Task: inverse folding
């Protein structure tokens, strides 16, 4: 009679230990791979804005966490891959399932409205035929495989030209792509450490495949003003902030 | 008896609401098609505006290529004056595209012209306009495809027939700069024919290029997960 609580506690402790070992094993393997590939790796997220990137997928769930971040020092923080942990929301407020995704984010040379390119499953096909925001393109094979959800149809058509469509179709099944403002995010369900680096490379190559005409039609928003990032200091300040500080000093010196 | 009347009234109301929604969607789709056509028109005008400058620049270096330059000017005037349906506009664009390709082939024979900053700028701007035109054309055709599908599909076909919503025409025209590509150099041709003809005749159009072959690099996809 008194054995059962102990047995349950033992099983729970075993599961926690097994998860912890698995998590650390993944981090270690990814670290070794990054070391060999000349990439940077951090088991905890060193960037302040990873979860603040402008994508709906990063805000879903009761809580989200980014870990096992990979980036290339030469490219700065514009290109990075990371594991995303999301606890799904439940209607009753109870704890939901924690899901792990692998994401790769890259900066784009244009500023654009929101576009999501998600694999089309059977239900998606039915829902897609009813949704008004769904965009269908000239390549039937692409339409069968992906669903395009766009705020701006014109952007969806401009962004997904023939070359981009073929690049998207060369991705393995299960990879979704989102574009918003000046960022692109590739998301896949749990990948092996080796595949994380390939996802990062795929994101880079997708950026190179982006049509140049999009930058002409959807230019980036103007550079930051002198006081735009003042809020980052946590209080109002009359002094210029961020990058403009150096520029102002240089301008003062020259005058 | 009263229940049947209510049922009939409910069915009629549902049908009427459905028809109204369908009609409104047709109207918004048609507006979208018109807007998309206006975009194409803007890009075409932009191209027409660039051509006189291009011709003048080429004339400065290759004044004896009179026939080619006249062809471009004539084709431009014809295309600019065409204000018909998309099919008519596309037909008028054909000779202009051919003339522009011919002009670009001629330019290959004048290295000084190719190095001219003004010409390079115009060429870049023309290529940029071609890209914008291609995007506008794809957007227009995507809207026409959606609209035409609804015109044919049931039950929207009933509303379409009732209110005379007819199928729209697609706009299909070749790209003047991109698809023409660089001149083909055939080292196996008989001596004297020359690698590049200065005044090429109305030869067969080059085969369409595969978009993927132009891609400098493609994404390396991760392996599918198990």
Result:
């Amino acid at each position: 009679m008194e054995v059962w609580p102990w047995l349950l506690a033992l099983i729970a402790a075993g599961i926690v230990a097994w998860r912890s070992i698995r998590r650390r094993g993944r981090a270690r393997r990814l670290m070794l791979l990054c070391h060999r590939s000349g990439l940077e790796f951090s088991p905890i997220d060193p960037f302040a804005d990873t979860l603040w990137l402008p994508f709906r997928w990063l805000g879903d769930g009761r809580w989200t966490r980014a870990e096992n971040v990979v980036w290339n020092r030469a490219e700065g923080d514009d290109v990075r891959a990371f594991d995303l942990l999301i606890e799904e929301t439940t209607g009753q407020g109870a704890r939901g399932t924690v899901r792990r995704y692998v994401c790769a984010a890259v900066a784009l040379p244009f500023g654009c409205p929101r576009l999501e390119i998600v694999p089309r499953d059977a239900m998606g096909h039915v829902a897609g035929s009813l949704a008004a925001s769904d965009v269908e393109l000239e390549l039937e094979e692409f339409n069968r495989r992906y669903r395009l959800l766009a705020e701006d149809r014109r952007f969806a058509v401009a962004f997904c030209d023939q070359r981009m469509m073929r690049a998207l179709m060369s991705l393995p099944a299960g990879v979704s792509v989102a574009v918003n403002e000046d960022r692109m995010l590739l998301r896949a369900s749990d990948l092996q450490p080796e595949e994380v680096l390939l996802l990062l490379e795929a994101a880079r190559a997708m950026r190179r495949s982006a049509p140049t005409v999009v930058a002409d039609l959807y230019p980036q928003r103007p550079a930051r003003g002198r006081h735009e990032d003042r809020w980052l200091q946590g209080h109002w300040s009359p002094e210029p902030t961020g990058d403009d500080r150096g520029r102002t000093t240089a301008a003062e010196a020259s005058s | 008896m009263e229940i049947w009347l209510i049922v009939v009234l409910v069915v009629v109301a549902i049908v009427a609401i459905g028809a109204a929604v369908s009609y409104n969607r047709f109207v918004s789709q048609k507006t979208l098609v018109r807007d998309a056509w206006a975009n194409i028109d803007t890009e075409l005008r932009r191209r027409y505006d660039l051509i006189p400058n291009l011709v003048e620049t080429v004339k400065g270096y290759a004044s004896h290529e009179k026939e080619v330059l006249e062809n471009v000017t004539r084709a431009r005037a014809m295309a600019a004056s065409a204000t018909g349906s998309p099919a008519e506009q596309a037909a008028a664009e054909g000779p202009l595209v051919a003339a522009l390709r011919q002009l670009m082939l001629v330019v290959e024979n004048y290295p000084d012209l190719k190095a001219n900053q003004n010409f390079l700028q115009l060429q870049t701007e023309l290529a940029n306009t071609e890209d914008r035109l291609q995007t506008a054309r794809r957007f227009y055709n995507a809207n026409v495809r959606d609209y035409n599908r609804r015109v044919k599909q049931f039950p929207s076909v009933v509303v379409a027939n009732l209110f005379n919503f007819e199928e729209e025409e697609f706009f299909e025209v070749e790209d003047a700069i991109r698809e023409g590509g660089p001149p083909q150099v055939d080292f196996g041709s008989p001596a004297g024919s020359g690698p590049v003809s200065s005044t090429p005749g109305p030869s067969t159009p080059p085969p369409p290029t595969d978009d993927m072959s132009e891609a400098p690099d493609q994404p390396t996809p991760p392996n599918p997960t198990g």
Remarks:
- The CA atoms of residues 24 and 58 of chain B lie 51 Å apart.
- Confidence is low (pLDDT under 50) at residues 179-226 of chain B.
- The helical segments of chain B are 2-61, 66-81, 86-107, 111-115, 117-152, 156-162, 211-214.
